[in-house]
Structure formats: structure tokens, C-alpha cells
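Feature request, filed as a ticket because there's no other form

It would be nice if the structure record came with a short human-readable summary line next to the C-alpha cells. Right now we just get the raw output. Example of a typical job, pasted below so the devs can see what we mean:
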Amino acid sequence: MRSTTSRPDHGASPLVVEVTAFGADPTGRADSAPAVAAALRHARTLRGPVAIVFAGGTYQLYPEYAGLRELYVSNTVGADQRYRDKRIGLLVEDMSDVTIDGRGARLIYHGLQTAFAAIRSANVTFTNLSIDYAAPKVIDATVAAAGVTGGRAWRVLSLPPGTRYRVDGAHITWLGETSPASGQPYWSGVDGLAYTQIHDPAAQRTWRGDNPLFTGVAAITDLGAGRIRIDYASATPPADAGLVYQMRLIERLHPGAFIWESRNVVMRSMNVHYLQEFGVVGQFSEDITIDQVTFAPDPASGRTSSSFADHVNLSGVKGKVTITGCAFDGPHDDPINVHGTYLEVTGQPEPGMLTLAYKHPETAGFPQFYPGDQVRFIDRRTMAPLPGPPATVIAVDGPSGTDHARPLTTMTVTFDRPVPDGVAAGGTVTENLTYTPEVVVSGNVFRNVPTRGVLVTTPKPVLISGNRFDGMSMASVLISADASSWYESGAVTDVTIRGNTFTRPAGPVILVEPTNEVPAEVHHGISVEDNTFDLGSDVTVADVKGVRGFRFTGNVVRRPDGPERPLCVFHDSSGIMIDA
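Raw output as currently delivered:
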């Protein structure tokens, strides 16, 4: 019998665990989930560095035998108990010095599950993998033809291979794959589902918009081979031939990938063709690197959507975040979002103790503070810190992130000193300063994005350099600090946007928009230098609110002749230097 563990021929570390030795099928015919889980369990028993390797080929991974954990994840379904359990295809848990090496393998995931996770682990690398889902929970419907016949408008929709549906008179029911365990589809939805964005393959643009496909429908006919004809009561000729309507539900049940309470996690040299229900979530971890990863649909799939929402959402990360040499193409929300989370003060049982609450329903259930963390207190109306140094956490009574034994939306935090004067229930939010990262976003390409390109709120140094942002439908770079909606913290102090190319942007290209209600200088030290902006005449380069210290120098701005918007617009800001 072949050994399940070996060292490379040269005798150097790490130990090598081959998933095929546990029964994984590189031909793609059988479900490899049980074998992959067994290989990971075996690797967890080994001492020293270990590499879990695939032998190239294609591997099918169904959720029924994937790891099952109760987990609460930022920006998903919050504390909703219906969705507390998550399936995880590749689960690295309580391990260190681990490499998952695909050696060029294609992993095809089925149903609803997280592709991979690193939980309470250190020095973990995922590399040389191609990830896709057999049946994405997004319907990409292309208007292949349209017209008016006999006084009725019609469209013919073309669907990617593998799209399952059932026509019911004047309605259509979209179906996920059938679970081999239950015999039921993993998910279903009707007509236009809950959300739509529109992709123009010819113009290479994507935007959010209304969905006219299922308005005024008289009849739907299944033409076979993934083609559907929709007839309408109206005679208004459709003008959208060639466009793709990307339709989905809105509940983010699973993160596409998950990095939690882990350190030094690397994604490198990967093709991520789709992420089911959300993107890569990094949550209360340290030092995350994403390098040479292509987030884009497989051209052979016929699909244009590459994720259910964000590509990368990093919530409460410390150390350094490095995202380099990547392509971001076809998400359903922001490609990159790096932020913390404000918790609102709801009470003060003792001078050095506060009760705090998660305020957005999609973020709850996990720890927001650990003993030793530094905490700043923020006035919600001004978004300015209250006077005095940060406090240090000495005790926390709150959710664990892995069970529901305690309340999931509230916690009690004890500090090393009385909280400052001015802290008030409903009027103050708290920010974890320890879990804020230095950020480098460099050498990436952003295209076919319906929203913003990079969102970043951290007081540590931020460098956004050498990227190309093409055809963004909203701001290419957004700096917020939001204590009224998503509660994503916090104020920046050192941001450099240098040497990027912005082509065909919607405006403003750079948007600084904290949510303060009372005028105040929230952000500090933003420099926009040596970039190239190719704009329409109606696009503003920067719209800036509440900043002290904004430099705009050495940039090239190209706009056609005609009525022009101002180059930059400032509100409640000072220390402005403009030298394009």
C-alpha cells in the first residue's frame, strides 16, 4: 500500500500528504470531499511543516461530507440561527506551517459551501489551485435576440451550460443542483430573484439596474439547449440585445473562503472563477497576503459573474494586508474592502465597563475585542475621537464566534480605566485599534465592477499603487468611516494613491465620505500623486469630505472638450494642496 505521508526526495521539509492516497479522484468522476477531509485530518496529526498536495486533474467536492462548523461571519447573515452551520470544503483548523498545493488542480464545488478556510492557524498557504462552482447561485442570462412579432415584444435568453430551471406558465423557477443526499435542489428562486446587475460584454461594463425581463410577461417557452423565449403583453421593442442580466438572491449564507483567528495566511497563484454566496473573508486575523490571484469567470463556462458579492472583505485584521498582481473581474459587489467594525455603546454598568452592540444585521456573533486590545471611543455625530488616550481591554463577556450560548449581538467589555467623559448610549461607538492593518494594494487590475474598486478604512499606512481601474461604475477608491449604516470603521491617517491608471470611470473617482452629521475633519493625510485619469467631461476626480491634509500632485488628467465638472470638490476640509 502506498504511504499516505512522505518527504520530498531531497529530504527537506515539509512532510507531503497526497489527497489521492486517501481516495481523492483526479478524474472528476467521484466525490472527493471525504478523501480531502481525511487527508486534512491526517495532516493535523503530524508534527512539523506539512504540504497537502493534489495530483493535478479535476476534483469534485460536494458539501455533504465537507467539514461542518457553527460560525459567525462578518457581512453575511449575522446572528440568524437558520444559517449558523457552515460547510467548508478545505478546512485548515488549529494547524501551523501548512501548504495546500493544488499543483494545477481544478476544484469544482457543489451546492452551498465555503471553498476553503484557515481557522486558528498560522503560516498557511493556498497555492496552485483553480476554484469554481458547478452551479453558481447567480443566473447569467444573455439576451440573445429580441423583437416584436404580432404586436407582442419578445426576448430569447441564452443561459450558461448547467443552468437548471423549470418553466411554470408565465414564470420560471431557477434550481440549484440536486443534492445526492436529499434529492432536493440546494436552492431555488423565481423569475428575477432579488437583485440584478447588468453586464455589457461589448462595452466591458457592469452596473446595477432594474430588471425588465419578467415585467409584463404573457408566456415563457423553454426552447431547449439553455434557451428560453419570453413573450410580453406590451409591444414596446426591447433595446437590450446582447446584454447579460446577472440575477441572484441576496442572503450571504456562507463566506466563499474564510480566514479567522489566523496568522500569516497566503493565497498565491490561484484562479478563483467563482465564490459562492460571498467572497474571501478575513476576520480577526494577522498578516494576509493575496498574490497573483485571478478572480474572474472561467471563459469556457459562458458565465460573466465571478462572485456572489465582494471578492475580498477583510474585517478586523491586524499586521499587514498585501494584495498584489491580482485581477478582479465580475464581482457582485466591491473587489476589495478593508475595514473594522464600530460597536455602539448601549450602557455603562461601571465607570470602566461598557455594554456594546453590533448594529448591522449582517455582522454579529463573533468576538470584536480580546484582552489587551486598544480601543478608541468615537462621537457618532462628529466621527471624531473623544479626548484621552485609548483604553485597554482587560475582560470581555460576549459571543465566541463558534456557538450561540451567549447573546450574539451584544457584549460587555471591561477596560483598564474609566471611560472618558462624553461616552453616551446611542451617541458613541467603539473602534478596535489593535485590529487595524497596514495595507498595500499594488499592481492589480479591476474591470467589470458594478460598485467601488477599493474600500479602505484603517489608521495604519495605506498604499494603493500601480493598479488599473477600468470602467468602474462607482468610485474607484472609497474612504468612508461609517457609524450609521454598515458601521465599518475607521478614520485614515496616511493614505497614498500613487501611479494608478483610471480609465472610463464613473465619478467621483476618489470619494472620501465619512458619515459625520456635524462638520468635522475625520480623516487625515491623503495623498493622490502621479496617477493618470482618463475621464468623461462630467466626471469629478475627487469628492472629499472631512479631511485635514489632502495633496493632489503630479497627476495627469485627460478629459474631452465640453462642459466640465470641477477637478476636485471639498467639504469641511483643510490643508488642501492641488498641483495636478
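Something like this underneath would help us a lot:
The CA atoms of residues 164 and 202 lie 26 Å apart.
The chain is about 0% helix and 50% strand.
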